[in-house]
Amino acid sequence: MKILSKFYIGIIFLLLYLPILVLIVFSFNEAGSLAHFSGFSLTWYKELFHDEEALSALRNSLFLAVFSSLIATVIGTFGALGLHRMKNRYLKQPILTATNIPMMNPDIVTGVSMMLLFVALASLLGSKSFFGFGTMLVAHTTFNIPYVLLSVMPRFKQLDPSLSEAAQDLGCTPARAFFKVELPQIVPGIISGLMMSFTLSLDDFVISHFVSSPNFQTLPLYIYNQTAHNVKFSMYALSALIVALILVILLIVNFAGSFGQRKKGEVKK
Amino acid sequence: MKKALSFLLLALLLSASLFSFVSCSDSESSTKTLYVYNWGEYISDGSEGTLDVNALFEEWYYKEYGVRVEVNYSTFSSNESLYAKLSSGSVSYDVIVPSDYMIERMIDEDMLSPLNYKNIPNIEHIVPEFYGPDAIYDTYDPDNLYSVPYLYGMIDIIYNTSVVPEDDPAIGSWELMWSDRYKGNILQFNNPRDAFGTAQYYLGLDVNSKNHDDWRLALDKLKAQKNVVQGYVMDEIYNKMENGSAAIAAYYAGDYLAMYEENEDLEFFYPSEGTNLYVDAMCIPKSSENKELAERYINFMLSEEAAIANAEYTYYASPHRLVRENEDYIAYMNEIKEDAYQKMYDTSSVTATSYEKLDDEEQILLNNLWEELKSDIDIGIVIYVICFAILGVLIGGGIFLSVRKKIRNRY
User: How many CB atoms lie within 10 A of CB B266?
Assistant: First the structure.
């Protein structure tokens, strides 16, 4: 039985990571081919750092992901706070359900409707089309908010309401009580929401495809548009770098999380 | 601490909105921006020591006219996505490079603006087959009002000489793609127009036929091919042909050389029954705000230096006389493969026709036939039944559980 479970986990990991492994291995292939491996070289990495277009797409992607996830986290956290405090049960549940709709909605519907909205807005205001960073930011923030809500709401539910009341009894203003007592307890939820929306924004293609402009190309758009001919091998190198970056971020988050927990446990003892 | 954090967030928010303002006002400064929309990997862009054509244009324009120009170059992956982007009205471009049938459609829908050829004197270098009164490959724009040919190509059959012997009687004909000797080694296009094209050329039918029976005949031919075909693919063709997991495929001529660089066993021919020739041409959409600048850009792309750089980078055939006659270019092509230049341009023995825009009726027919080809077994109904059954079970289960819970709670 034990062997079987080991075998099973091995297969799952193989399925998950083999494609990425192939990508990383071939990003070091001197020949620039998937057919044969001619030798280890960093040619494609060198090529990548001379590719102005790819680098600017990468910059745009990171910039957009950072800003949209931060804004979505702020809005989402306060939204969760509001929903949590809401007394009217018959209003609360429908609102919660409504916030889930964008998450279940197919990306393509969100993308097209966003585009139509912006086009209509532009013609309403009589201005020329304003597609670009602004529209991308609005779109990405919008589809990120439900995910933040989803990861922050449970934290609020776990909160003991008497803690905040006690703080206010002892002379805290409600705002101070929120920042001093409630916020620290929901931080893990906020961070996981932030991370989730960051990665979602970084790899979103469908919605970006509809609301982007030539001024502002993100990396997924750039890579996809190369597929008309042959995808450049420097893209393999870039993808390998992104995998490495995400791995590092995950490790940091995990270590930071477990470090904090151990400390808390010690205090309790 | 928390206060500082919230201030920081606020500051970030503000700077984000500021940034979007800055990016808006950018276009109104003295630098002009030219928006170019082209196929991915379809211009010499300075990678691997090639010439950066767009940078060269910016430099040349400043020297010539004293105005700073920034070329904003972005790419698309199919004619349809270009069309969708342009017709949604969300963005405007100054120069676009669609293929022939899409140009025809855009002209029909009044999306292109007529060119002022006074600003494009280099048009005289285009060979007479592609531009002018005697042109045969300009059916998409017969009066030459809207477009300037950029590059062109023909569909060829690529085969692996280690699998297909040189004396195979089917070489030279579409028959090669139908021969059972290479069962499981043949790749067919995964888009309806090109796939039906192969069958139509093989049967000697008109690829732009309005006769529905012709399309049916082509479908029968494709169905007959189905059991010898390994798969219907597009880009996967590169890897499959390069590593030898497939031996015969029809594809675009320029891409053959890219594959040959990886696998020297590959060889190609243009089928004698005739094949498709497609042209990608530069046009200016109606929404362009810098028409004169766009025309100068087009003219620059026709300069000898830029045209050669693009032809060398993409390996596609150029309709430009100075490119075709350039010694360095010929040497460059022949260095990749000794008879590449000659085989690519000497097409006098091949009859090539272009795809024209299909009418709605034929377009729908084609899509239906394509569906029929891809889904031979009729599983349509079964799928729906299974889906509804699963959904029903889920909903029923959910209702059952919640009712049971309610009943239990009552006691």
Answer: 22
Q: Find out whether B247 and B160 touch, Cβ atoms under 8 Å.
A: yes
User: Cβ contact (<8 Å) for A179 and B244?
Assistant: no
Q: Does B91 touch chain A (CB under 8 A)?
A: yes
Interchain CB distance below 8 Å, B90 and A118: yes
Q: A137 contacts in B (CB within 8 Å)?
A: 16, 20
pLDDT band for A265, please (50, 70, 90 cuts). very low
A147, A197 contact by CB (below 8 A): yes
User: Are A228 and B41 an interchain contact pair (Cβ–Cβ within 8 Å)?
Assistant: yes
In chain B, % of residues over pLDDT 70:
92
Token reading at B401: 């559980």
Q: Which of B73, B90, B235 is the closest to A129 by Cβ? A: B90
Quick one: residue B87, left, alpha or beta (phi over 0 = left, psi -120 to 50 = alpha)? alpha
The yes-or-no answer to whether B29-152+279-339 and B153-277+362-374 have a common fold is yes
- List beta partners, residue B282: B148
pLDDT band at B291 (very low <50, low <70, confident <90, very high): very high
Give the pLDDT score at B25.
43
Count of beta carbons in the 10 Å neighbourhood of residue B409: 7
Please give the interface size between A and B, counted as residue pairs whose CB atoms are below 8 Å apart: 115
Could you tell me which chain A residue has the CA closest to the CA of B251?
A229
Chain centre to alpha carbon of residue B35: 19
* Interchain proximity A119–B40, CB inside 8 Å: no
- Yes or no, beta carbons of A134 and B13 under 8 Å apart: no
Q: What is the distance in angstroms between the Cα of A245 and the nearest Cα belonging to chain B?
A: 23
Q: What class, spelled out in words, does domain B29-152+279-339 have in CATH? A: alpha beta
What ipTM, to 2 d.p.? 0.72
CA of residue A54 relative to chain centroid, distance: 20
Question: In chain B, what residues touch A224 (CB-CB under 8 Å)?
Answer: 77
Segment B168-195 shows an average pLDDT of 90
E strand or H helix at B156 = strand B147-160
Question: Residue B237, Cα to own-chain centre: how many angstroms?
Answer: 15
pLDDT given at position A214: 83
Q: Radius of gyration over alpha carbons of chain A, in Å?
A: 23
What dotted CATH number matches A67-216? 1.10.3720.10
Q: How near does any CA of chain B get to the CA of A226, in Å?
A: 4
* Residue A159 main-chain phi, psi, to 5 deg: -60, 145
Q: Tokens 């000898």 belong to which residue?
A: B304
Q: What pLDDT sits at residue B10? A: 55
pLDDT digits (tens, 9 = 90+) for A171-201: 889 888 888 888 898 998 898 899 889 988 9
Would you list the domain boundaries of chain A? 67-216, 218-255
Q: How confident is the model at residue A2 (pLDDT cuts 50, 70, 90)?
A: confident
**Overall size of chain A counted in residues:** 269
The answer to whether B262 contacts chain A (CB < 8 Å) is yes
Residue bearing the bigger pLDDT, A99 or A32: A99
Q: How confident is the model at residue B23 (pLDDT cuts 50, 70, 90)?
A: very low
Average pLDDT of chain B is 87
First CA to last CA distance, chain B: 52
Q: What value does the mean pLDDT take over residues B20-28?
A: 45
Residue spans of alpha helices (H) in B264-379: 291-301, 304-314, 321-325, 327-336, 340-345, 360-374
Domains of chain B by residue range? 29-152+279-339, 153-277+362-374
Rounded to a whole number, what is the distance in Å from the CA of B81 to chain A's nearest CA? 10
Structure tokens at B364: 């729908």
Decide which of 3.40.50.10490, 2.60.120.10, 3.40.1390.10, 3.40.190.10 is the CATH code for B153-277+362-374: 3.40.190.10
Which tokens is A72 given?
């979505």
